[in-house]
Design goal:
By secondary structure, this protein is mainly β. It has one domain: 6 Propeller (Neuraminidase), CATH 2.120.10.30. It has 1 helix and 27 strands. The strands form 7 sheets. The protein has a 5-stranded antiparallel sheet, with no helix packed on it. A hairpin with a 5-residue loop joins strand 19 and strand 20. The two termini are about 30 Å apart.
């Protein structure tokens, strides 16, 4: 990636502090193109609340929503049938019996994996694990070239079964300055056939990650203080990336917050958690509008029949019905 891009991204440390809450949830329409995505009658509704700091919603084929409480250190399941949330893993970010480690010790990114497994990022144990239906856990990634990774954050599968993930330092007690940090960089990685490859090593704080519907473009959010940028990279047939360049800049917002988790719909529109809500971008990077949430959003994912967008935002989960289906993930 060109150094010119990086000089625009360096800024103050990341902070999970919330902006003042909006009075109500609302759809902010900035471009007529949003009308093809969000109906004029669509509303953002709260479905469950009462948590510490939520992340990583994931719709399971069984018809329930999983999500992580990053600060509470619990992995939850919510059922639309009875509206209740139940614990799946407690602790969720590390092995039982170990004291919590770092600023945010809990579970984070989730993705459906092969053989009905869930692939889970754990901040406390600084690893990615595969979780079977009976909650048996197997470590997939915890080291790169003999050194411990930082705190795997978000992840996505490619059609060839390779797993791409971001590895910032949000889980370490002192971030980049933590004495337990072993890698000299915060990377974007590809895990394939038991081997781990560093794709990007010069982003200061990679966070959310996603693919275009044709898997030829990889999107990554860079979340470092006042720098609020989404980048896009070309993906080669071998899975490597090149020609990384800015896709969208969220720094125009006066509200606090940085680009966080993201998802892409079946038409290539990009949905990124950011200041004030979920920012919706066209495939060419135009900001079409924002799905404003009363609390600071962290991530989003499609559920139900694929046209309901679930949003994790601080202490609550929200949802909104859309016209466009989400991009179908490899193992959904």
């Amino acid at each position: 990636m060109k150094r010119l891009l990086l000089t625009a991204i360096l800024a103050a440390p990341f902070c999970l502090a919330q902006a003042p809450p909006a009075a109500t949830a609302e759809v902010v329409r900035l471009d007529p193109g949003l009308d093809a995505i969000v109906s004029p009658t669509a509303v953002i509704e709260k479905v469950v609340t009462g948590f510490k700091y939520l992340e990583a919603p994931l719709w399971r084929p069984s018809g329930v929503l999983w999500f992580s409480d990053l600060s509470g250190d619990i992995l939850y399941q919510w059922s639309p049938t009875d509206g209740k949330a139940t614990e799946i893993l407690n602790p969720g970010g590390h092995d039982p019996g170990k004291p919590p480690q770092g600023r945010y010790p809990g579970p984070n990114g989730l993705v459906n994996g092969p053989n009905h497994a869930v692939i889970l990022c754990q901040h406390g144990d600084r690893r990615i694990v595969s979780l079977t239906a009976d909650l048996k856990m197997t470590t997939l990634v915890d080291r790169y070239q003999g050194q411990r990774v930082n705190s795997p954050n978000d992840l996505v599968y490619a059609p060839d079964g390779s797993l791409y993930f971001t590895d910032p330092t949000f889980g370490l007690a002192k971030g980049n300055d933590d004495p337990e940090k072993e890698l000299k960089f915060n990377g974007v990685f590809r895990y394939a056939k038991g081997k781990l490859e560093a794709l990007l090593t010069d982003l200061p704080m990679p966070n959310g990650i996603g693919f275009s519907p044709d898997y030829k473009t990889l999107y990554v959010s860079s979340s470092q203080g006042n720098t609020r940028t989404l980048i896009q990279c070309d993906v080669a047939a071998a899975g490597t990336v090149s020609n990384c360049r800015p896709f969208a800049d969220l720094s125009s917002s006066p509200e606090r917050g940085v680009p966080d988790g993201m998802k892409i719909d079946s038409l290539g529109n990009v949905y990124s958690a950011g200041p004030g809500g979920i920012w919706v971008f066209s495939p060419d990077g135009k900001h079409l509008g924002t799905l404003r949430t009363p609390e600071k959003p962290s991530n989003c994912a499609w559920g139900d029949d694929g046209k309901t967008l679930y949003i994790t935002a601080a202490t609550s989960v929200y949802r909104i019905r859309l016209k466009v289906a989400g991009e179908k993930a490899l193992y959904d």
